[in-house]
Amino acid sequence: MTREDDKDMASEPTTTPAVIAENVGKVFPGKKGAQVTALEDIDLTVARGEFVSLIGPSGCGKSTLMRLIADLDQPTSGSLSVFGKSAKQARLDQEYGIAFQQAGLLPWRTVRRNIELPLELHKVGKAERAKRSKELLSLVGLTDFGDNFPDQLSGGMQQRVAIARSLAESPNLLLMDEPFGALDEMTREHMQGELAHICAETNAAVVFVTHSIPEAVFLSHRVVVLSPRPGRIRAIVDVGLGTSSERTDHLRESETFFAAVSEVREHLHGSPDAVPMGVDNR
Ligand SMILES: Nc1ncnc2c1ncn2[C@@H]1O[C@H](COP(=O)(O)OP(=O)(O)OP(=O)(O)O)[C@@H](O)[C@H]1O
Fold first, then answer.
1. Is the ipTM of this complex over 0.90?
2. Is the peptide bond before 230 cis (omega within 30 degrees of 0)?
């Protein structure tokens, strides 16, 4: 039986949201007994197949929230569930894929073997691994690069490999923390288009951290604007640009796009022209 069959037989109803955060807070112990409240009262539901971006000033807790969802850390208050399971159970069941700013590829493995790594770790057989990596190489447009090593690829191509690897186990949820943060602007826009295409193909839900307002708007169904630390949800903007399959470059010139960019910016800083520290307006 494959993992796909496993998933089909899972008891979770298909209406169970991808993520539910209820009243989530996170306090870190600071120096000399002082405490750092990173997050407060976070209530957020991410539906299956939904693309939600988190945006806010530097240090407002975006990465912390991501780490809590991924069970890399635990909330100090409130509760979190992922597909109706505890964050820990969802991690154990490999319910999500992760892609962060640094592609994090293993330089001594070929592109194909990097993509196959999660499958190898979970003892998926050789033939099935080869089939899956072939599909994924095609999905991210790297069919001809499977036998290359990461340092033979551009930054954008490496990031595509990382995304392919995060999709290896067909997760219904992707957690992406500034995956395009290290790329130049042109490559970044290209990658945004690629990601929209991948989301349309896989129908995975995505929680995406970014500092770029246009990036958040181009990709997301909803943009969650966080306040300066302690991070609270200041506003949630419904972008209204349609499904992921409709996110093509011409949308960047549309009135709906500009209106959503202005709305997010206003929530971030209270005026259409102001941009808070750590948020990229381009
Ligand atoms: N392990 C930790 N111990 C103590 N404080 C922490 C820890 N991790 C994060 N913090 C603090 O929590 C706050 C939120 O950090 P976080 O990295 O989540 O912010 P962010 O919004 O992702 O920032 P940036 O946009 O700059 O990446 C910061 O004040 C940070 O110093």
1. yes
2. yes
